Amino acid sequence: MGYPWQRPKQDDLGKILLIYPITGMDVFGINVGLPLSCLYLGTVLTRIGYRVEILDERISHAFEQDVAASIAREKPLFVGISSMTGIQIKGGLKAARAVRNSDPTLPIVWGGVHPTLCPDSTLKDSLCDIVVLGEGEITAIELADCLQEGGDLNAVQGIGFKQEGRLVFTEKRPMIEDLDVIPRPDYELIQMERYFTRAPSTDEAQLQVVTSRGCPFDCEFCYNLKFNERRFRYHSAERTVSDILYLQERFGVNAIFIEDDYFFGNPSRVTKICDLLIEKGSKLLIQVPCRIDYLYRQNDEMLAKLYRAGFKELWIGVESGSESRLKEIMKRMTLKQVLEVNEMLARSDVYVKYGFMAGFPKEERQETLETVDFMFQLLSSNPHAGVAPVAVYTPYPGTTLYDKTRLMHGVQFPETLEGWSHFHFGENNNPFLSPRQKKFISKINVMSRFFERRAFERFCDNRFKPLLMFVYSVYYRYLRLRLRWRFFEFMPEIPLIRLMERQYVKA
To answer: Same domain, yes or no, for 353 and 266?
Structure first.
């Protein structure tokens, strides 16, 4: 079949404004990466003649004024807002208010993970006129065509809208099976120099790329269960390597972060990607998320091939240091496997970053401390290992664990778009935790930011670095003593650290 972005380009099509809101942990030059969701939509729309403007709140110093100015320059057919659950909704609502104030007649379209998982509550909000469900490339074009021509929204698959006071949802849109048909993002739509981040181990300038969508696993906390329906689709090895090398050749970066949920899902594809990168003499540093079960099936020889191909940094979600918790959330791996993989990685030069969570339903303090102890066990047995700060479990709608918590434990979750804006992986507002549990997990979240020296060092690259690293060394010893003695009372530095962090993120 032909795809709508493959049709001839027209010269008389309208403008579309796409907005990427803040995420809540946006540090310029560190983790403000490409607004890929907007880029993919903008690319297919511009290919057929629509004029697309992308506004990114993360790099804007006067976001609401920028929104108003864009609308004043030329009225768009619609304003699209991309959003995940949590703080990004706050930025989206701020943008939507600016749109309403500028022109109340403009259609406001919400898309992305949260509107797909919570279409009803999103669409009920007065600052939302249309929701796009699931993948948006084809839907965005059909919606733009419909609004351009004054057509019937009922004919557009994969959307919801309001009609005479009712919520109307159209027929579900099938997923795109062959990802290679989707064009490479048009990077000319944004100021690329604003999106260079830094590789943790080498400080190299890096950009992001997506090579697959979805994951077949059934981890109970993951949005993929509903959003991608446990389906794994991927670009060919040739397209993947082409996209990666294009970023290096076009923008001069020496590091790439692959933003896939399940990059290693097809081992033969991974091997071919490695062979192609080695054949082309690539010297890139590539970071990529990985599951323990893939590495557990590999040997030192395959690990060496990954390293030669540039896959020198792996990000692995372990989630918990409790064996029973891993079984409960259907992680489908064991702590023994994690330790064996960590030992194998210690024999290599591959840097690995482990991720953990705390605050699951019915999680006891001892279970959280088991997670902390396991983090230090990994660090002590592998000089190339690092750990991310312990994330606070967030019950994202559409996940199995969310449904269990809501139905089995009688927990009430937000019923409005505004309400969901307060749920975020860095904040602890889970209704099923007691105030004492919340306070304890919040302390663990802050303390874990200091578990890895290398990570802290990245944020101290200035003239005060020697002093800051000295302070870090003293504070690290202080934290280890607290953890050893299990003493978490009277920690006046926690609010101060959070305040400094918020100021740093704002700056």
So the answer is: yes
First to last CA, the chain: 48
Distance CA 464, CA 473 (A): 14
Q: Which domain holds residue 365?
A: 179-441
Which CATH number do you get for residue 407?
3.80.30.20
- What's the predicted TM-score (pTM) here? 0.91
In this structure, how many other beta carbons lie within 10 angstroms of the beta carbon of residue 409? Answer: 11
* CA dist., res. 342 & res. 383, Å (int): 10
User: Angle 493-506/435-447 helices, nearest 10 degrees?
Assistant: 60
Return the minimum-mean-pLDDT range out of 69-73, 178-182, 414-418.
Answer: 414-418
292-300 contacts, C-beta under 8 A, 24 or more apart? 292/316, 292/318, 292/333, 292/337, 292/338, 292/341, 293/332, 293/333, 293/337, 294/264, 294/267, 295/341, 295/344, 295/345, 296/333, 296/337, 296/340, 296/341, 297/267, 298/344, 300/344, 300/347, 300/348
Pull the structure tokens for residue 163: 């009609």
49: which DSSP letter? T
In a domain, 465, yes or no: no
Q: How many domains does the chain have?
A: 2
Specify the CATH number for the domain of residue 93: 3.40.50.2300
Residues 348 and 290 in one domain: yes
Q: Are residues 90 and 239 in the same domain?
A: no
Residues in the chain: 507
Buried b / exposed e along 261-287 (16+ C-beta atoms within 10 A): bbbbbeeebbebbbebbeeeebebbbb
pLDDT digit string, tens, across residues 151-198: 999 999 999 999 999 999 999 999 999 999 999 999 999 999 999 988
Measured distance CA(48)–CA(142) in Å, rounded:
12
